[in-house]
Amino acid sequence: MSLNTDRSYKMKLRDVENAFKYRRIPYPKRSVELIALLAISCTFFLFMHTNKLNSRLKEMEVKLQPSEFSALGLTGNHISGHDAGKHDDINTLHGTYQYLKSTGQLVNVTTLRQNNTRRARRRVVFFNRPTRVGTELMLPLLSLLSKHNDVNLVLKGPVRKKSLMRTAKQERIETRFVSRLENGSLYVAHGNWIDFAEYNRRKPIYISLVRDPVERMLDNYYQQRTLKKQIISRNIYPAYPQHPDAWYKQSFSECVRRASPECQYIEYSMRDEVEDFKRQSLFFCGNDIDCLPFNTRYGVQKAKRNVEKEYSVVGTWEQPNITLTVLEKYVPRYFNHALTLFNLHKQSYSTFRRYAVDADVWAMVRRNFSREYDFYNFCKQRLYKQYLALKLEKSLN
């Protein structure tokens, strides 16, 4: 083959390659429209499916992936005070155990993981007690324990006035007072959680109690209507406006049905007609103004975070045996032999009084406390985890 022939052959081959490289394959116009329509349809259905999955994931994310804001990964809105005895409910001890077991989390339930006492910087217990949670029922036992364990029980602090929020000045006074207490002291006081680090003070051992939110309100409602309160009000404070006899006799159900100001529980409300301390989560959220609105997600989430990170134990006097067992093991210096002493003198300790409430009224009020129940059940789940950790480790020994 000659040189010219060879060159001509290569040029033709290059022309063929270019033809294939830059070829344009014509498509019918209707085919292009059909492909575009299919692409748009697929995109739309994919968007709808993704949006549905996203909604499902938001509902299930806490349930399947526990975080620092959820003791077991549930919102906690599964139970009321009237059905707390169901063993298959996540907010019972048995239900908690079954949930942890079924999700494979039981292996991570250890006392080391559940114990915040080791993170405290002061050997002083700060029991910031919410109102109407049964602390007054626990005080005789605390007094007995203080003598038995050589603990300095302190019941009077520098800030005596009850209020929804502490001012920065009051916080400063309180933290200074706690910081000056001798090691081995147990300080009990009404008031919200305080960040000691903010005032360059070493953090004490935080403990507290919680109670069913509606039961708290019922207790508070009827405590304000006792004969003793009526006598004190009319004989000691006669110059103040007095409630009529009908007010003292009115039942909680009647109060709710009549929409009386003290029986209205309005979400996001900042001020109340009657100061009733219905915000249980506020005691754990702190004195930040954003904690004040009633039944809000922010207040409850911050309260959960503080309980998880700052508190050694948050128990409930509705279940004293579990609470005292956990306190005894996680805060031993102050609660050594707590359960034994409690059982020895069990008959001398009062229990919560139960009040009759119409079922529809209970359900109505409970809905207004939805996030407060979320927080309450979170604390119970955490308490159960601490208790189960003790039982699991004991069974291994």
Quickly describe the structure.
The protein is of the alpha/beta class and 397 residues long. It has helices at residues 3-21, 29-64, 93-102, 111-114, 135-148, 168-179, 213-223, 227-236, 245-249, 252-257, 282-285, 297-310, 320-330, 332-335, 338-344, 359-368, 370-396; strands at residues 124-129, 152-154, 185-190, 205-209, 311-315.
Describe the protein.
By secondary structure, this protein is of the alpha/beta class. 51% of the residues lie in helices and 6% in strands. It has helices at 3-21, 29-64, 93-102, 111-114, 135-148, 168-179, 213-223, 227-236, 245-249, 252-257, 282-285, 297-310, 320-330, 332-335, 338-344, 359-368, 370-396; strands at 124-129, 152-154, 185-190, 205-209, 311-315. The chain has a five-stranded parallel sheet with strand order 2-3-1-4-5. Strand 2 (152-154), helix 6 and strand 3 (185-190) form a beta-alpha-beta unit. Helix 13 packs across helix 17 (370-396). The longest helix has 36 residues, at 29-64. The termini are far apart.
